[in-house]
Amino acid sequence: MLQPCANVTCKRASCALCHCCQQNVCISHLNEQNEFLNSQLNPLADSINALNHQFNTLCIHETTRDYHKKLEQWRLDCYKKIDQFFEEKCQEFDQLVADILNKQRDKLSNIQSDISKLIHNKEITQQDIELFTSNISQLDDELKKIEHTNIQFNISPLIINDTLIYLRKTNEKQIDLSILSSIYKEIKYPPESYCPLACNDRLLLIHQAPNLCFMDTEMVIIKQILWSHDAIRDICWSSTLNRFIIIEENNIFLVNENTMSIENVETIEKRRWFSCTCSDTYLFLTTGVRGSSIVEFRLSPLITAMKEWKSPNTCTKDEFINGIDYKNDILALTIKNKIEKTLRLELRSCEKLNHIWSFPFNIICNQNIAFRFCSFNYDEWLVADYENGNLLQITNDKSLKKTISYKAIPYYICLFGSDMLVVSTAKGVNFHKI
């Protein structure tokens, strides 16, 4: 016996099992179901056509062009470094040869001078004749040997591997500091150590008295160099110079981890400097006085002052720039009012220092210590609040996203690699996996 159509309003007998709804339906409702399914294809086709148009009009070429420019700049920088290294070694070789020749030239000149004096004075003995004869013979032998001098000349091949350039799609997952991990590793400060720190994509630079220490991403000290200068105010990294920049009260130093050298930048005048940051092209320094200035320096070919912004364009005469950081053509500043004991975070345009936005902190600044911070996530900032022992996460829409209570008083912070938060305290450096 035939079953009735599953549609309750239909009096017809079923003639087929609909595989979509698994019900027995008549031919009319089976056709209706088929037409309904077919009608949904057109919106799907419209959607895929819209996505196809979106794909064909993607503006990714500008982004890829920027990355190609970075690769090209890396290539040019490498050639420049090879040329510089080549010139240094040529000069070193020429100096080595010159030293050998100068030594023999001095001996020859001395013998000539002594003989001339004896000829002039007409006072000579047989012993003098024998001594000069011996010296001339010895010099003659040495000069003949110079023509066949062997110099140890070891040249190692230039090793290039994939680790020089690391490519990976950025993980767009936002970092959540509400679940900040416990300390992964802690490095204690010896007495008289300075708290500032900075990193590039490979190394973290800290001060462990009396040395500057370079740490890798495994948190192992791989190199260290004696720091014999005054207190360190701030540190930043310059990819253009391939150097760490250290700010002392009156001097600026370049630290080269390859040659382990510390160079005083003579082209920067002695002023009371306080904090620093770098873009690809410029170095920005703030002065450690009320009504702080911001001075912009071109990094290449020589570090040269370009412009200076002064109070009141930077801050009022009663205010002090505590810290500065660069990101995506924006300068971020922490500004403390000495009279009102207030603090705010300000974003300014990098080119003209135009005001973008300000965020006032609910903090009373009683101590004479700088508030340092770093860029965080994509458009956020992480501030070390030493007054209350917190880390403050500020969003790009001028709001306090999170207040993270920290177990010690934080002074300096930075993100090291893709998964490490580094916090400098009075007692040492703490590493947190994030």
Task: Summarize the structure in short.
The protein is α+β, with helices and mostly antiparallel strands. It has helices spanning 27-39, 41-56, 61-121, 126-146, and strands at 16-18, 23-25, 185-188, 198-199, 204-208, 211-215, 221-226, 232-238, 243-248, 252-256, 261-264, 273-278, 282-287, 294-298, 304-309, 319-327, 330-337, 342-349, 355-360, 373-376, 380-385, 390-394, 400-405, 410-416, 420-425, 428-433. It has three domains: 16-56; 72-149; 177-433, Neuraminidase.
Q: Mind telling me the C-alpha Rg? A: 36 Å
Side-by-side strand order of the widest sheet: 3-26-25-24
Mean pLDDT: 86
The level-1 CATH class of the largest domain: Mainly Beta
Strand tally: 26
Determine the N-to-C terminus distance.
69 Å
The H/E string reads EEHHHHEEEEEEEEEEEEEEEEEEEEEEEE
Task: Please report the number of helical segments.
Answer: 4
Helix content: 25-40%
